[in-house]
Design a protein that fits this description.
This protein has 10 helices and 8 strands. By secondary structure, it is an alpha/beta fold. The structure holds adenosine-5-diphosphoribose (APR).
Length: 253
């Protein structure tokens, strides 16, 4: 049975959220765990306990074995499409709609569960697993549509042989600058920073909590286990996303 967060801490965070003019929420893979999408670093079930990220989540790994990487993402895409948003996704989106202009939602996740729960403006730091993009710029300077590439594992441009790759940020790659700037801005401007379901192992996303704290925000973490950024939090709510977020947000009109 998952732990339940301390009622006093829950009430305190709820009060800060109720009074907040700006709330920044950062989510990680734990946000999607109760929708059936595996996290990366949870012992036994995490993807990185079963697969080598260097081989499957890097450009080098893709170039070394494009078909293997393409197949792995194709399998993950099936899981994402089958997954459904849970009560935590719905609670976040509903809170955002009840309080226009208050919520900025930033995710490290490459699934579309926040969007399908009703928050299409989610800021994606690590890309979109359901999107395709070209591996390299077109040598002929064209702007062809990856969706029209010749079928294959992976698909390739019939004219120049360019590979199609998943639209996610791989290890060693830069995050989309606009998304990162927007995330930094919201961390610096918010009254409350809510960090849900991340180990805090990967930067620069992991740095957003300390950015918010240094800028004067109240920082709360929702996670059933300890994370690498717990020390940045004023409040740690030991519980799951689907359990804690509705309890935290649903009574806030
Ligand atoms: N509710 C909330 N948190 C949960 C739940 C849950 N039901 N289940 C697990 N968690 C927590 C775990 O305790 C862990 O702290 O979610 C976190 C998942 O951590 P990671 O697997 O490291 O995922 P994340 O922090 O999102 O990883 C960051 O690393 O591999 C890259 O690009 C990948 O975006 C990912 C980044």
């Amino acid at each position: 049975m998952a732990e339940a967060p301390d009622p006093a801490a829950l009430a305190a965070v709820r009060a800060h959220l109720d009074a907040a003019r700006r709330v920044c929420v950062l989510t990680g893979a734990g946000m999607s765990a109760e929708s059936g999408i595996p996290t990366f670093r949870d012992a036994l079930t995490g993807l990185w306990s079963r697969f080598d990220p260097a081989q499957l989540a890097s450009e080098e790994g893709f170039r070394a074995d494009p078909a293997r990487v393409w197949d792995w993402y194709a399998e993950r895409r099936v899981g994402v499409r089958q997954a459904q948003p849970h009560a935590g996704h719905v609670a976040l989106a509903a809170f955002g709609h009840r309080r226009p202009g208050v919520l900025t939602l930033v995710t490290q996740n490459v699934d579309d569960l926040h969007q399908r729960a009703g928050w299409p403006q989610t800021i994606r730091l690590h890309g979109d697993i359901l999107a395709d993009r070209w591996l390299r710029p077109c040598p002929r300077g064209r702007a062809c549509d990856p969706a029209r590439a010749a079928a294959g594992r992976p698909p390739r441009c019939a004219e120049c042989g360019n590979f199609v790759r998943p639209g996610v940020v791989w290890f060693g790659e830069m995050l989309p600058a606009a998304a990162l700037e927007a995330a930094d801005r919201c961390a610096m401007a918010c009254d409350v920073m809510l960090v849900v379901g991340t180990s805090g192992a990967v930067w620069p996303a992991a740095g957003l909590a300390s950015t918010a704290r240094r800028a004067g925000a109240q920082v709360a973490i929702v996670n059933p286990h300890e994370s690498e950024i717990d020390d940045e939090a004023h409040w740690v709510l030991r519980g799951t996303a689907a359990g804690v977020l509705p309890a935290l947000l649903d009574t806030l009109g």
